[in-house]
Amino acid sequence: MSTAVSNGITLEEFLALPDDGVYREVIRGELREYRGDENMTRRNKKHTKIEAAIAHLLRTWLDQQPPQTGEVHSGEVGCIIGHDPLTTVGIDVAYFDYDVANDDSSGSSFIDGPPILAVEILSPSDTMEGVSEKIEEYLALGVPLVWVVDPRFRTVEVFRPDAEPELFNVQQSLTADPFLPGFSTPVRAIFE
Question: Could you state, in order of their start, the residue ranges of all structural domains in the chain?
Fold first, then answer.
């Protein structure tokens, strides 16, 4: 559970906040802080193993693409996905266009721009409301492809801005055309 702190925070104000162990994000200009037992995501070995598997699968695909096509980031990569109002999020695994990932014009440690793919891995502390809000923000702010990975049921739900969600299980393969051309993996590979 989060505590809303203020409305209308600027990027400069957000970046000036102390690095004091409190997880913070900004949704539509509203600063949210996650403290102590209210941490947004509780990492566990299943979560981190899945995160590593997805990053590896994406990186293996990326190695087959032309140079400077894009970059794979993982581990709550800080991302500014909107400026007016400010929206910053931490993404479990993300694939960015190379130019977006390497743009340093904001002067921050955050990647400034939406990813092509945002992957959220569900944790025991996630709520349906929180996950749904994040998916809606991603899609509204230009993320063309979102995967929500459920370790418990071993499924991947795929969201696109102009399509109905699709659910994939371990008996199926997951593709990402046209956003990640040629990417394909058995869903089972994410969970094994």
Answer: 41-191
CA dist 54 and 35 (Å) reads 28
Q: What is the pLDDT of residue 43?
A: 65
3-state secondary structure of 90: strand
CATH class of 41-191: alpha beta
Give residue 19's region: left, alpha or beta (phi > 0; psi -120 to 50). beta
Task: Give the burial class of 113: count Cβ atoms within 10 A of its Cβ; 0-12 exposed, 13-18 middle, 19 or more buried.
Answer: buried
Compute the distance between CA of residue 179 and CA of residue 155 in angstroms, rounded to an integer.
20
pTM of the model: 0.84
Q: Among 92, 94, 98, which residue's Cα sits nearest to residue 65?
A: 98
Q: What's the chain's length in residues?
A: 192
